[in-house]
Structures are given as C-alpha cells and as structure tokens.
Design a protein that fits this description.
The protein has about 110 residues and is mainly alpha-helical. Helices cover about 65% and strands about 0% of the residues. The chain has a single domain, classed as Globin-like, CATH 1.10.490.10. It is globular and about 30 Å long.
Length: about 110
C-alpha cells in the first residue's frame, strides 16, 4: 500500500512540498523560533523528508534515526503538535481524507 500512497501524494514533489509547509508551520507555531537552532532543524528537516519518502513508498531506503528521535530534535511543545500541524498542511494541499488517513496509517505519529 505505501507505493499507492506515494503516488496519491504526488511522489517526491508532493512529499517535499508537504515537509516544507510542515516546517513553515512548525516555525510559526512553536514557542521558540526554529531559527534559534537552525543547523539542527535543517538536519531534522532533511531526515524527516527522507523518512516520509521511505514510509510513504518512495524508492530510496531510509537508514537514519527513528521517527521518535527525529521528532525529539524538533523540541515540540506537545506530543500531538506534529500531527495537528501535519493534518493542517495536508488539508491545505487538498489531499483527500482517504489519502490523509493512509499517510497516518504509515507514519508513527500519535
């Protein structure tokens, strides 16, 4: 099923756009601007983008840290913060509800 999800979200360009929008929202919603630790964020963004490509059905293998470790690097204010923002991003990108459900079925986000 991940290959189908990868197609539905627009393959590499769709995932890249989603991750970019997600990080824009993270930057504007967190209590401290992400620019205050920009090197860590740039690395986390790169790894999260690669992770999303892998779990949603892209062809590149992922050998980085676990998703939990990646999220810890973002220093989010709550456990569900990432899920809420990701739902907003996918809705803004006009992904169908069934596609959004499939994305969350493949991502270990609480």
């Amino acid at each position: 099923m991940p290959k189908v999800v990868y197609e539905e979200v627009g393959r590499q360009p769709g995932v890249d756009k989603c991750v970019n929008k997600l990080f824009q929202k993270l930057n504007s919603s967190t209590h401290m601007g992400l620019s205050s630790f920009s090197k860590d964020i740039a690395e986390a963004k790169f790894k999260i983008r690669n992770y999303f490509h892998f779990v949603l059905g892209g062809t590149e293998p992922y050998t980085g840290p676990s998703f939990r470790v990646l999220c810890q690097a973002l220093r989010l204010p709550s456990k569900n913060h990432l899920r809420v923002l990701l739902e907003e991003v996918m809705a803004e990108m006009e992904w169908s509800l069934s596609t959004i459900d499939k994305v969350f079925d493949n991502l270990p986000i609480e």
